[in-house]
Design a protein that fits this description.
This protein has two domains: 7-267, 3-Layer(aba) Sandwich (Carbamate kinase); 277-374, Archaeosine Trna-guanine Transglycosylase, Chain: A, domain 4. Helix content is 34%, strand content 21%. The protein contains 13 helices and 17 strands. β2, α1 and β3 (52-57) form a beta-alpha-beta unit. α1 (36-48) runs parallel beside α9 (244-251) and α6 packs parallel to α8. It is globular. Mean pLDDT is 87; it is low at 148-152 and 209-216.
Length: 380
Amino acid sequence: MHAFARQPLPAWRRAVLKVGSSLLAADKGDLSDRHARGLAAFVNAAREQGREVVLVSSGAVAAGRARVRTDTRADGLVLRQALAALGQTRMIALWQGLVDAPVAQVLLTHDDLRNRRRYLNARNTLLELLRLRAIPIVNENDTVAVEELKVGDNDNLAATVAALVDAEFLFIASDVDGLYDAHPLHEPDAKPVAHVAEVNDAVFAMAGASGSAFGTGGMRTKLEAAAKAAHAGIATLLFNGAADEVVAGLAQGQFRGTRFEASGTRLAARKHWLKHAPGSGARLSVDAGAARALAGGASLLPGGIVGVDGEFARGDIVDIAAVEGERARVIARGLCQYAAGEVRRMAGRNSREIEALLGFSYGDSVIRRDDLVVTGEAAS
């Protein structure tokens, strides 16, 4: 079987690392730190270099299965949910014992990521954990999820989390070296594919089935995750997390595996979504000073707001209009951190007064600059 050549690892500031069950499962189904130690060393080295890592870790079901004495050979949905609940603490404890930082458990379902308000809450929590220099460990909330317990969920969840936290890279640590142009176990002459510009039908045709006894994903789900990340402007790096020299090379700026290119930039992908996604129909009017600040890339602060038209909830997309005499011109739109009634109460006030006015605070900005796109539409 042909080996992957080394390639330089581009500079990055924030990444999501997905670790599959096959890298954490011991022979009898419990968790092992055999491969986790090297991956944790990579995380520690990255943090020492000033980088941020969010971990998406499988393994809870395997850990839970090893903790009960009952017959767990059956694999029904309710049993898997119970095993996930049993194994979560074991999996978190494994990582906490290996990384040089506090870890934080974050359990998500797809509902949390589809609902705009919950999406915003999850995003803010993850970003705050990174600001606190903690390592978020994300997993699906398998205890209550039904639809999410499908093959390859954590691959796709990792891609979604990468977009959620504006990561530059999605690292997928697997038990395979990377993508081959044919199944390497069945085709001795299968050649490694070191670079994929676009995940298309031809690339999906290269995917083979999973050979792992413990994992729930295969190469196809990794390609799905890479495609999802690419649409968000995020590159994906697929590598063998069981190969010590490959994992050690990551901390040295060397990569060996398959790199899936992003489709444009992260900022462009997010701004495109904000510009074209359905809005709430509501509008915030701002004064000239706020309009100039927004055009220069600033966040929207409450002091520049002079009017609120319509109703919206926290996390809804609202238009922003610059007041010019008796006319208002829509100049931007974005995800609002506060509901309409809350914005009305803080409009024209200083950000420092938010908590006193509302009794709580989601931050100084009504709309953060990363959640805002300048549109410059015609007067209305």
